[in-house]
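Worked example (supplementary).
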Amino acid sequence: MILLIILIKIIALTFFVVLPLVPMSVFFERRFSAIIQDRVGPNRVGIPLTLFGFKKDCSILGIGGLVQPIADGIKLFLKEDFTPKHVRKAFYWLAPALTVAPALITACAIPFGTPISLFGYTEKLVIADIDIGPLFIFAVASLTVYGIAIAGWASNSKFPFLGGVRSTAQMISYEIALGLSIIPVLLYFGELNLSSIVQQQAEHGWLLLPLWGHDATHTLASKLLFWFPAAISFLIFTISIFAETNRMPFDLPECETELVGGYHTEYSSMKFALFFMGEYAAMVVGSALIITLFLGGWSLGFGTDSWISELSIGGFGFGGLVHMGIFLAKVVAFILFFILVRWTIPRFRYDQLMKLGWVIFFEAALVNVFLAALIVAAPHLAAAITAIGAVLLIIVTAAIIWVARVSETKPPILRA
Amino acid sequence: MAVVKLQRPKLGPGEQIYLTALLKGFILTMTHAVKSLLGKSMGAKGLASSGLGVTMQYPEQTWDAHLPEYYRGAPALVTDEQGRERCVSCQLCEFICPPKAIRIVPGEIPSDDPWAKVEKRPVEFDIDMIRCIYCGMCEEVCPEQAIYLRKDYVITGLNRKEMVHDKDKLYQIGGVRTGLVNKWNELK
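After joint prediction of all chains, the assembly is encoded as:
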């Protein structure tokens, strides 16, 4: 019975919630970027009922183009799956799968909503309610780089190889900032279980919007004070997620101007589509993680969540589904933000990218950890000790900034 | 060439932190997005947009009403007021045509024809629309003002043969053109 429930949850949440978000984000990508660029975008593809003898084609919800991702998929399926002679076959075949699978596996630790109850059973809307949520996600998500590195190497040609190398270096650099930047969040919640983190945010205010649910242990002042390290964490974490998912400003592994197509230059048909899907799945899971940690996950906020989770008709408590809807709406909103960033910020140069990762984000995240620790611990410490801590922190920060400035080599001035 | 030393602008602390520039960028792209949804993008009116961005959505809306006077579309033959074909098959257009798209088979006008004194007219006149580059040289070179570039631009066909416009087709596109050349007209 338990096995069956787990199977149902895996299939329902992965294949009917996360995977459909991938073509949806592709559609949004195309439409939203078109709108940003004063164009129209795909607005014609509907269900071709005329092929089956009907009078008119049908467009879903009256919005043309919603079926575009399916048309794209069919196109990719029908293309020739060409394997060049010079590739290392086994790895060449393995690489696309290695990019998609981790992205989908990470979805299992994300809480989609409050428990739903049916026929007396109560089930949490999360596939694996593990107590090491973020760690598990980081561990599995960083496996994606194997797919890309192997693709680059197995293609046995120079541009994919360079793409793979770039991706590896980038992932390693930003993994550090990514891991360090969420330590303040984990310190604040004292919890690594994503479900309980979201539950706490629903009760006491989102990390970046702590405006309700004040009590003795969660005073408004302490929450507002913690807002600053939380905001820094959010900034570093979001930008590192961009780098991790190889999205624009950080999509150097597939930078067309320099590397043709990057690591997937030699791939065609469905193998290429798998890379594409992997990128978008990583984007979906990444934004889901950001929302879970910083923006209250499935909670609607302002103390409405306990009311929503109690909603039920007969024996069917559907509050969890409402929460899931809220969660997905937030995810879609964040994906739109991803797209907005893509069409706003130009691509970084590679040394700038490395400098941003190692010199700025790494240090900032590190200082932020101490700042958050000080703020969290302050109520339990004597005022003098807190003051000493603050002074030490300021000295360390100043030292880091000084070192970063000094270490920066100025380019030699070109003379005529 | 003199070497120009590029002086990079000094950035203030607000600009160095980069975030303000990001914000400005977001505002810029979002204004574009909102404006294009409202159909108020820059230049939307001049480009006769469909109300989304600056794009005119093609099969439903066409450029026909907005084509300029000097637009060069498909070349076509014209007849004059009295239904006489203006072309005298001098073959100048055939010779000038840069991609060699025009093929003319000249023929004599029989003596019992009312226009017998014109002497020549084309028996066959083919323009291969796959080769045509719409340069308008034929129109420029024609001494009889018999060939004109019309505003038709949707030239389609399912095979190469359909893409060759023969004499009937050319006259069908061209129609009647009045005025200008009257040297064969005895009434004037």
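Two points are worth noting when inspecting this output. The longest strand of chain A covers residues 116-118. Strands of chain A lie at 116-118, 121-123.
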